[in-house]
Amino acid sequence: MQSSDAAVEISGLVKRYGEKTAVSGLDLTVRRGTLTAVLGPNGAGKTTTIETCEGYRRPDAGTVRVLGLDPVADAARLKPRIGVMLQSGGVYPGGRALEMLRHMAALHANPLDVPALAERLGLDSCGRTPYRRLSGGQQQRLALAMAVVGRPELVFLDEPTAGLDPHARRATWDLVRDLRRDGVSIVLTTHHMDEAEQLADDVAIVEGGRVIAQGSPEELCRGEAKGTLRFQGRPGLDLGTLIKALPDGTSAAELTPGSYLVEGEVDPQLLATVTSWCAQNGVMPERLAVERRTLEDVFLELTGRDLRA
Ligand SMILES: Nc1ncnc2c1ncn2[C@@H]1O[C@H](COP(=O)(O)OP(=O)(O)OP(=O)(O)O)[C@@H](O)[C@H]1O
C-alpha cells in the first residue's frame, strides 16, 4: 500500500512500561477514509498503541506514521488534523459542557455547528452542567463531541460506547457512520462485537501486544470454516436428489430424525437450491437457518478468550 493511502501505518511497534512489554512488534495499517476496529482482550495493548499514535507515548522501537507524520516530532502539525476521544480524562472537571465544546470548536478553522452537535448527542439539556456533575454516559458523549467538533481528518475513539444506554449508543453509531461517509478515517477500540460488525471496514484483533488477525468482518468470519444451513422437515427424506443438485464440496445429512444439515459454501444460490428442492418434494423447511461464524466465534478461536473477559 502506498503511504499516501494510509491514515495510520504502524510497523514493528514496541512499547514497554518498565519490565512490562505492553506492545511487542505490532504492525497495523489503517486505510484512509475507512473505519478500523481494534479488538482485543483487556491488557492486549490497544490503548497503548492508540496513545502512541496520538503522540502521548514514544515508541521504544518501530515506526508510527499518522497522516504521513511522526506523532511526536510533528505533533504541532498533526494535532489540528486529528480528533482524540480518550477512555477517560483530558477534560477540566469544573468546565461546563457546552462552554468546553465551544472552546474546542474555536480552536479549529472550520468546526461543526456546536448547538446541532450537542443536540444530536443529547447534550443540549446539560450545557451548563460542570463536567464532573455529568453522568458517565454524558461525559462519554461530550468527549466524543470534543473529538469530532473540529472536523478532523482522522479520529481515534477509545471504547466510545462503553457504558452507554442503547439510545446513546445508537446516536454514537449514527454519528460515527456519518463521519465515515464524509471521508473521515476512524480508528476505534471496542469490546462489542456487534459494534465492530456494524461499523468497521477492517477489524484488527490484538493479543499480547501484536495484531494476530486483520481483515474485513466478512473475511475474518469466512475463514476456513464452512457455512451451514439447517432446516426441519418430515423424517426420512431421500436426500439423493438434493445432494446431486448441490455444488461439489457441499454435504447434506439428516442429523436426527427430521433435522437436516447442509454444509458448504452457503450463498444465496445454495439457499435457492435447497428451498426449490424442498418445494419440489412438498417439504416445508421449518426453522430454516443460515448460520455463519460471527466475529465473536473468530475471536474465541484465535484468543481462546471471551472478548469481555
Ligand atoms: N502507564 C502504565 N504503566 C504500567 N503498565 C501499563 C501502563 N499502561 C498500561 N500498562 C500495561 O500494559 C498492558 C497493555 O495495556 P493497555 O491499556 O494498552 O491494554 P488495552 O488492550 O487497552 O486494555 P483494555 O481493553 O483493558 O483497555 C497491560 O498489561 C497494562 O497493565
UniProtKB/TrEMBL annotation:
The keyword Nucleotide-binding applies. Pfam families: ABC_tran. PROSITE patterns: ABC_TRANSPORTER_1, ABC_TRANSPORTER_2. InterPro entries: AAA+_ATPase (IPR003593), ABC_transporter-like_ATP-bd (IPR003439), ABC_transporter-like_CS (IPR017871), ABC_transporter_ATP-binding (IPR050763), P-loop_NTPase (IPR027417). Its main location: membrane. It comes from the Bacteria. Residues 8-233 form the ABC transporter domain. PANTHER family: ABC TRANSPORTER ATP-BINDING PROTEIN. This is ABC transporter ATP-binding protein. It comes from Streptacidiphilus monticola. The lineage of its organism: Bacteria, Bacillati, Actinomycetota, Actinomycetes, Kitasatosporales.
